[in-house]
Protein 1
Amino acid sequence: MSRIGEALAHAAAENRAALVIYVCAGDPNLALTPALVLAAADAGADVIELGVPFSDPTADGPTIQRASQRALAAGTTLPGVLEVVRRVRQTSEVPIVLFGYINPILSYGEQRLTRDAHAAGVDGLLVVDLPPEECAGLRDAALQVGLDWVPLAAPTSTEARADAAAALATSFLYCVSMTGVTGSDAPDLESAAREAARVGARAGKPVALGFGVSTADDVRAAAKHCDAVVVGSAVVREIAAAATDDEALLRVADKVRALAAGCTRTA
Amino acid sequence: MTSQAFAGRYGDFGGRYVAETLMPALEELTEAYRQAQADEIFRADLEALLKDYVGRPTPIYPARRLSEAVQLDVWLKREDLCHTGAHKVNNTLGQVLLAKRMGKARVIAETGAGQHGVATATACALMDLPCEVYMGAEDVRRQAPNVERMHMLGAQVHAVEAGSRTLKDAMNEALRDWVTNVRTTAYCVGSVAGPHPYPSIVRDFQAVIGVEARAQILDRTGRLPDAVVACVGGGSNAMGIFSAFLDDAEVALVGIEAAGEGIETGKHAATLTEGRVGVLHGSKSYVLQTDDGQIVEAHSISAGLDYPGVGPEHAHLMVSGRARYLSVTDGEALSAFELLTRTEGILPALESSHAVAGLHKLRELLPEGALVLLNLSGRGDKDLATVKQALAERGGAS
């Protein structure tokens, strides 16, 4: 079982959802990112989604757009993101999924990226603008080196499409809670979580619910039905609001602890 | 799903690189378009609009004084005479008619020069659908007359402040709107770019340009042209006229990109001639990008060409050798604007001025007096402020 699969199984054994925390690599600078990742992991993140910044993130709302711009302005590149992973791996086994868009990966080279990512200690890939129809090349390359592939299902996906996406998942399926960009409000997380759980049950695979999850209450609603819950923009906002690096680390740790409390299934 | 995997490819280019949320909408659009094409009533409705409302067929015009100046036999396909002043309306009438047929409640569009925004707002006014247009804040400034026209037509214009504040950023914002409102909203894409099926839908709706022009030039001259030339930003007017000549191997197809302040300055929009293969806005094509795969800001005096991507079918035509792509600078386009205005009494759009400027480059490739068909894609009224300022800056007469 992969490191991601083990983290999900570990959470399930504790009767809670796994907490997946998004951090945009290089926001506000690459030097701080390893510490932010470790702070999130220490505070209760089970899996880290490490954002690879892209100039034109069309699936992201203003919060992650601005984080990506800050990261790019600070000189973040894909090799720099892999260096972050190597540094995290010196002290931590927290599973890391690279989360990004296809163009920087194509530019780096698909085979080269999967090989270098695996060597650096990356566990999985999630590429927002690579739907099932387009993913074969990169997914095959990822699987060959032992990386997990994380596909997406959306509320607009037909049952057939959602099932096809789930079939491509090697550790979990990422279900988008609503039609919209990251950081938007989700009108009804609980019904989205129930729908995601139905897809997961049909495929016999764990599902994570993301988009529009920002508070412990949101996490609680999703955790009732899903194996994992993803929080992104709400964590990025904590980093953006910090005046110093130390404050950013404290804010992220506080936020993740609060979110982690929502993961435990009480009922 | 398997059949979809091979749809919408032009050689190695095209495809559908979008978030899963949009994939079902693209499948729905593909199917609705297929059914509409097979429907005689849809085709007749569109044909009637193109004739009675747009004023098609647009004429071809032998530009004698221009021909003398460039030592070629130049015929202009007069898309500048279309209602709304550019070829863009051929496509928006088709797409908005399709949106109506699909029962969509709202139409969105991106625009660069504002011609596609105006053409979408026009079609929406005609067919009684609410319209919202995303436009880069820089383009809102330099194409103010078109912003006013959109307002008058009842459209809402969103000025996009992100990034380079031009067409690329407008398209990003339109995609974000669509991902949010996809169930009720039709996205009317203005160029032969974007995810499948847009590159083929837009080409098909613009193909009327080439179909007419091919018959007209045969009728008037008794032969096919030696070359067909058009400007290329995203590339819709060029695909529209090229498409009728793809099988005529003896006809050279030449696209003219914007070299901005000069290729060597890095401030240009010459995507095919200077870019690398990549993915932008849902399709694989040539893209202006850094070594790290970040999209760079394009530059052109022409807002409609100021785009770091290009339609995937153009990438295929270039790689396969069927079409050639050259570039001309802002300065060369301005001189061509003056040349056409003073020799023929026709004010071309700055986009189309690039095609006119391309005639000088063509002259180096073709014998004197060669027969050239030029797609004059739009008229220049919207550009007068920009041209006046640019001419003043370089100390030229105006």
Protein 2
Amino acid sequence: MSVQVQAEDFDLGAEVRAAHAGCLRVGAVASFVGYVRDLNEGDEVRDLVLEHYPGMTERALERIEAQARERWTLDAVRVIHRVGRLAPGQQIVLVVVASAHRGEAFAACEFLMDYLKTQAPFWKKEQTPAGARWVEARSSDDAAAQRWGGNG
Amino acid sequence: MIRIAYFARLREAFGTDGEQCPLPAGVADVAALTQWLCGRGGAFAAELAAGRAFRVAVNLDMADAATLVRDGDEVAFFPPVTGG
């Protein structure tokens, strides 16, 4: 399974190695790791809780992967998104893409993250000194996804 | 029967993660179901009012106002997503 939603942490090195293991046509592996920050909208973030929609979230990630595979020739795609309570500094999300050349790997990696941020049902709730609050969606994320064209 | 699920801010506002109910009379699409929920007043009317930012999925796929809702469907209401 190349997309996964899990509470556990992940190992970037192991995922990158797995992405090109046994496939000698792979010349490029691009990866992205998202981390919890300790500051958002000017406020200290003590931790956050990631909620998702079991069943739909996995399906949405699989669809995003399929769209990336239609656009580019990719040898491996791996998406891991964590859920549950996470502290600043912890890893939230991983995207790894293997391809013959860097152009496709870089582009597909960015596409996957842009679509994940606007299409996959995850919600963040932050704990700040003033109390808990739901993170609001950003229009800049919509703009980032829209530059790839299509409607997702 | 249909299953209606609520997530994140909407789950908290409605005080439940979902419910099961008979498909309301006259409801055939997302727009009509949304209007029916708004008719309950209170948090439903406030959160699902026109102009409020929320998304709807039918049977685990993103939907829009015109998406059909049939007996046996699962319809979910949630805020715009904020993962990644």
